[in-house]
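Students often ask why we bother predicting the structure of a whole assembly rather than each chain alone. The short answer is interfaces. A chain on its own may look different once its partners are present, and contacts between molecules only exist in the joint model. In this exercise we take two input lines together and write out one structure for the complete complex. Read the inputs first and try to guess which parts will touch.
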Amino acid sequence: MPDSRLRLDIPVSSRWLQVAANFVRAAAEGAGFDEDAVEAIEIASMEAVENVIDHSQLGGGDRLKMSVGIDGDDADFVVEIRDRGIPWPREVIAGKVGHDMPPPESPRGRGLAMMRALMDEVTPRQGTDGEKLLRLVKHRVRVDAAGSSAPA
Amino acid sequence: MTSTLVLVSLSGPDRPGLLGEITAGLADAGFRMADIQQATLLDLLALSILVDVGPGPEPVGRLLRVIGGTALALGLTVDARPIESAEAGRLGHRDLWALTILSDGLDVATVARLARLVGSRRANIVTIHRLAEDDLSAVDFILDVTHTPELAELKSELLHLSDATGIDLGLQPEDAFRKSKRLVVFDVDSTLVDGEGIDELAREAGKGEEVAALTRQAMDGGLDFGEALRRRVALLDGLSVEAVGRAAARLPLTPGAGQTVEILKELGYRVAAISGGFDLLVEPLKQELKLDHAYANRLELAGGRLTGRVLGDIVDAAGKAALLRSIAADERIPLEQVVGVGDGANDIPMLQAAGLGIAFGRRDKIRRAAHGAIARPDLGGILYLLGVTGRDLAALRRRRRA
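Now the answer. The structure tokens for the assembled complex follow.
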């Protein structure tokens, strides 16, 4: 696939959730993932988008920008979600939370853990200009002529 | 439920047939196209399509599948932005103005200053087109001024930028009349010709200093235009027709004047000259440039010499504007399709009566009153303000050679 990218700019509103889901699904299918991987990418991405929508009630921007594309020579499939909502907590940026599923009584922290279970890389970043970024990466799998698969 | 519009912008390497592949996908899916714009620079494409996908967000996903798959396969980057009905309403009523910049070659620092200035007045640059054929000497910026509170302030600041950077500019509505002008009316002294006719006549009469003193008095406001003209003409009493001819011959055409008038005539414009000077100097110009109309003050002759009197009404500022309206009426051309070009304060009413008024030269008062201001001493720039491109000019040159 050539080096190219799909970007979507939508209002932060649950009305647009299905659009975001279709957007990610179409790109993942286009990148050649099997249905299980497509579903994993879609669920992880929608979890991230829902988080943005939930947290938007606490303030922040009214637009959400998603981009999907194939990055670099190692051909990773990358989903990036940007918004201007409340910043990431420091412990999230530092990678101290969100790796293991929290206990049932914990009110928070499930989203990042679930995304990490579904994707190969999950990286939250905080821009100096107030923009918040979540980068989700799925390594692509190359299928050879004999039908066996290996990481691309 | 109202339709959802999606603005899809595609960018990346261009190649023949690309637009066909993109639009075929949209057509097959039954989407309607509400608007389209495309630009290419070298081999890079920037294509924007406003797609009407029907009511609700659901079809937006279908659109993304259709266009995303094709575009990614073609190596394009795709930006998609659904536009809800309230925003679409705002986008539909845009007040667009064309800002034409003429320069020796637009540099990036000037573009940065221009863009900051425009942005500070809440105007947005919608598109940029190079008008000159192979350099950046003429560039059109189409501005959306829908949210600009005072267009006059934007224009005033653009003139400051012009003073500081040496660029020339025109600011006019980007509407049906912008590129459909049909009549161009020029002032004569210091516009079509490089000099002042009265000064040359005074030199022939040996009255240069006296005439200059009256001119200064009129310019200082101590004497009205008509009275100053009559007194100066009185000083020319007895000057021979031959001497008037010598004075006319000493007035060279302004650089670019001959070629510009020739191109205007070739493109089908009617061309006129209205002078606050004298018919005996303007008539040879009318013949030389094949002007369709020429008006000036009429000098009385007796026995081959000037009598020192002016016949008929004085052609002053109000007279020039009235003559412009009269020529337009005779030619059945609406004033919106008329261009006025002049350099002095007495040209201001004429320029303001025209759909496009262009100030030629550096006089501040007229620059602020006009739509366009050309300070560089070449009339050729007005062609770009009329929307003529370098490509058009090259095609005309080729046609003449053929």
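Check your guess against this: Chain A touches chain B at residues 1-11, 15-16, 18-19, 21-23, 26-27, 30, 69 (CB under 8 Å).
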